[in-house]
């Protein structure tokens, strides 16, 4: 059979069952747009190495043939509903599963974080265009509820898969940068190892007594600065050991201080050092959209011989004031390592 049939030379095309329609018919626009979606997903799948996600997208592509066929049969004697409840359930279960694999993202996401997510975002926007066509078709044809539901869930599903690849890329780059950061600090750590109190080397987590001492020193510096602060001390995994809110400090500073400490512990880096990397030209672009991550000053990891045992986060003033108070707390911690807690 030849690829070209010449039957469309006069501007018409065949619907399911053989009926002819103009190529600008809205039904043709609708199933043609679904064809675009399928092709865009195909490009994304060509870049995806994970078998699980490749199979998810392949299943979606096969279902899209059914979507196109249903659209191409509207208004004909051959029309039948082709999208089933289980097709919609598959998308919903996929979305729910992906939501459990990553933190929540806040704000708008700029497309282009990875090759995979970029192509998936194109497919997602084309799905939205297809939805608009299908919505208009409802004015003239009986469009099934499942068809509308499926295309609506599909855009959400593609968004969820795209964000997974963005998050995965961000985490991989973060790990690489953390390793570089830790490697660059090893020589300096080794130079000071003899100064560290031998009894403190056994500390694996920040204890409450030490956390309280650090917070007291931060409060002293806060009084000197003239701004009431919120001070948060966490363990190595970012879980709160102590949270101190000074009188009249801003309520919003509570959450910010906790996030600064969490970020410093989780990413093993002072929060101000993440700012440049989080910009559009940076290696960690988009990380500031990850829930609980802060990329401005006021958070510092607490280390013993290069090992993270906790973190400090301070909020309440300007970034410079927050950093000044947090750095004072960091020096207090370093003093504990060499001299113990001094009153």
Explain how this protein is built.
A 4-stranded antiparallel β-sheet has the order 4-3-6-5. The chain has a two-stranded antiparallel ribbon with strand order 1-2. The chain folds into 2 domains: 12-172, Hypothetical Protein Ta1238, Chain: A; 196-339, Beta-Lactamase (2-Layer Sandwich), CATH 3.30.450.150. The radius of gyration is 28 Å and the shape is elongated. Helix 3 (85-99) runs parallel beside helix 5. The protein has helices at 26-47, 51-72, 85-99, 115-137, 145-192, 208-225, 252-266, 275-278, 319-339, and strands spanning 12-14, 20-22, 230-235, 240-245, 299-304, 307-315. The relative contact order is 0.10. The model is unreliable at 185-202 (pLDDT under 50). It has 343 residues and is of the alpha+beta class. The chain is built from 9 helices and 6 strands. This is Corrinoid adenosyltransferase.
CA gyration radius, whole angstroms: 28 Å
The fraction of residues in strands falls at: 5-15%
CATH class of the largest domain reads Mainly Alpha
Question: Main sheet?
Answer: 4 strands, antiparallel
């Amino acid at each position: 059979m030849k690829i070209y049939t010449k039957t469309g030379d006069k501007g018409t095309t065949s619907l399911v069952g053989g009926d002819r329609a103009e190529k600008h018919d809205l039904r043709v626009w609708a199933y043609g747009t679904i064809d675009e979606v399928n092709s865009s997903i195909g490009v994304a799948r060509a870049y995806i190495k994970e078998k699980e996600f490749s199979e998810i997208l392949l299943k979606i592509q096969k279902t899209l043939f059914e979507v196109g066929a249903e659209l191409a049969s509207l208004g004909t004697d051959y029309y039948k509903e082709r999208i089933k409840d289980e097709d919609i359930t598959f998308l919903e279960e996929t979305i729910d599963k992906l939501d459990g694999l990553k933190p929540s993202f806040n704000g708008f996401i700029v497309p282009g974080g990875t090759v995979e997510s970029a192509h998936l975002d194109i497919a997602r926007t084309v799905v939205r265009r297809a939805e608009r066509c299908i919505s208009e078709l409802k004015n003239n044809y009986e469009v099934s509820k499942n068809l509308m539901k499926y295309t609506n869930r599909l855009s959400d599903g593609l968004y969820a898969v795209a964000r997974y690849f963005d998050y995965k890329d961000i985490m991989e780059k973060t790990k690489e940068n953390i390793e570089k950061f830790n490697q660059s600090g090893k020589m300096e750590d080794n130079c000071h190892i003899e100064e560290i109190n031998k009894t403190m080397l056994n500390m694996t987590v920040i204890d409450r007594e030490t956390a309280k001492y650090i917070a007291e020193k931060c409060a002293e510096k806060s009084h000197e600065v003239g701004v009431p602060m919120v001070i948060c001390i966490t363990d190595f995994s970012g879980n709160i050991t102590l949270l101190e809110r000074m009188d009249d400090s801003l309520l919003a500073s509570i959450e910010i201080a906790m996030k600064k400490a969490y970020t410093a512990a989780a990413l093993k880096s002072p929060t101000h050092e993440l700012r440049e990397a989080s910009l559009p030209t940076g290696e960690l672009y988009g990380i500031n959209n990850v829930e609980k991550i802060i990329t401005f000053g006021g958070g510092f990891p607490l280390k013993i011989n290069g090992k993270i045992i906790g973190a400090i986060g301070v909020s309440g003033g300007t970034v410079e004031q927050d950093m000044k108070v947090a750095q004072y707390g960091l020096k207090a911690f370093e003093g504990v390592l060499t001299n113990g807690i001094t009153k």
